[in-house]
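FAQ: What does the model actually see?

It sees only this:
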Amino acid sequence: MNSVSAKQVIALYLRYFLSPSETFVYRQLEGVSSVFDPIVLTSVVCNPDLYPVDRLYAMPKGLAGRVYTRLKSTVTGRFGAITPAQRSCWSSKLREHRARLVHAHFGHFGMDVLGITRSLDIPLVVTFHGMDASHLLNDSRYTRELAELFEYAHVITISRDMARRLSRYGARESRLDVHYIGVPVDTFDFVRRVPVADKIAREETVRCLQVSNFVEKKGHRYTVDAFARHLATHPKHRLVLAGDGPLRASVEARCREKGIEQSVDFTGRVVKSEVSDLMRDADVFLHHSVTAANGDMEGIPTVIMEAMSTGLVVISTVHSGIPELVDDGVDGYLVGERDLDAYVGALDRLGGSDPDLPKKARAKIETKFNMSVQNKKLVEIYQKVIDG
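And it is asked to produce this:
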């Protein structure tokens, strides 16, 4: 991304720039760079070859800094803290570039830079994505600081459901926008597949796919259990579980326990180009999101948007903002969280699925969850906050 001095400078802040699971952040940064001139502030640089940025200012904490912020958090009772060196560095860069706005992703990261933006009188935009509007709400320190954050920052949530949740903690409608992240539809082209119902009628293999980290809220256990029951009547079908994470070994063990390990493939960690290929070869996309024991929830998983963009038949759950993306029975199927009978029923319903469902799914993404459209809306939000 090349700098153009005539543009207004905006700064993006994350503690870690950037994890492959947060590619959407980079897509947004690229999307707004036609109008704004972005700089990036971060503590730790990750994957710079994947996410190159012309002006990235990293100030790591180091051991002494981590001790300092831990002690400060303990003494003050505040949820998070940055070091004096970080505050000085990032304040200097914001002044040097005459930044007009700072956009922090995740609520707790917004708290890092709240003091900086307030002291410099620079508007702060904070996007909430998932755990920062669910699991972290169980922490009283976090909710106390949310009230302070909401007094100054303009809030973006990635679903209406999340907006309603945060409004109970003081987020004001006048300073809040629901902004769907969206996906690049040109990257995830529509694939003309043999209809699932036709493949089932001809007793051909139907390939089911899930792409996600192996963590509790992704619901792998329920996918495996439902698929095991589905195999009893559709023995040729296959399940591909792509990704990695702390629960992968237990999910593999569950497949062996259910006796279906020969019908389930584990790919390990995948990059975006591999995700596109996996989706191209699949017939059905599964994503059984659940609320984790610690309260952690999804926002709206972008991977479901990607799957729908390619025309995959999606089976997911009535969870967080997912019903804002998937209209049950119209452009996908939804079941209740952990409702195994309903999950198996949805898999079994594939034999009678609407042949136009894939086109309807693609149309939904093109109109409501198209990243190029959503990036233009983000530009409008930035300008509104700068002007306001």
